[in-house]
Amino acid sequence: MSESMQRRILDSLKDDAATEFSLRLAPHGEAGEKYLFLGNQATLPGHVSLFLAIKQLIEGSTLVKFIGEPWDKYNLKRKAPLSLQIHWRCTRAEPWEPKGLARRLRLHRNYLPKPRATIQNIDKPTLTWQKIKDAAGGHDGYYYGGAYAKGIMGSTDFETSVTWDLWSYASTKTEAEKRVESLSRLSRDTLLDMVSGEQKEEGNYRRAKERQRQKPYVRIYPAWCIVNNYELIDWVVNGTDNDGNPIDWDNPPSGRATALGQQYKQCDQIFLNTKEPPRAEIEKLRAVLRSPRDLLFGNE
Question: Is the dihedral of CA 17, 22, 27, 31 positive or negative?
Fold first, then answer.
């Protein structure tokens, strides 16, 4: 690659809004194959140059066979577009850390537990406020402690399977396993395996970090959850907008630009600390589960 071409590549990266620098390359024009490169500003030109040299070397060769996957399957292997993060606290209502709470629980205020669990690939059609609340322990919550369970979640489809971990701490291994099983039902993925155990207790925990790692035995209650709903539009690869028109790269569509396309995101906090589902929280949940792109483009 000539020095002038490397300079053009660097100039094209200056206005990139993605977390990493990205480069869309079409060696044979828009009608031919397109390639997407990710990297930092210092190394990306060299990687592109090496790729073009290797491509020219093996083009037309019958000595090698490439094994890959379609773009849609690659997208399926990425982080699920709809995730849920549940938070627990030691009280049922605000303020979440009232004055005297730590003393009443015989804990240092810096070591009050603030557990949370993230569930990916949420089963959107069946998700309700009550289902989230029940999976998190219901109105009476459950006892937190040093026993843990780790569920290994994933799809049973080998071609698109990506595993992720679902953790829970409780007073007993049985309770921790029960909590993981309940939370796993919020996901479209399958609970493939589970391991459980208990924290090892040793020493006097003189250091602050050692005391912090030790989980206290205390009742916790579902406080709130955060729903993250985003839609990734692969305009970088397809080169068309929502209506199928060619993208004007000088004036790209709205949305957050990422290395893989425009990202439309909705995020909202849903409170879980009441006995009955409040109408306002139900409406918030219903709104945040809508397609982010539909809201931006005004589609019902």
Answer: negative
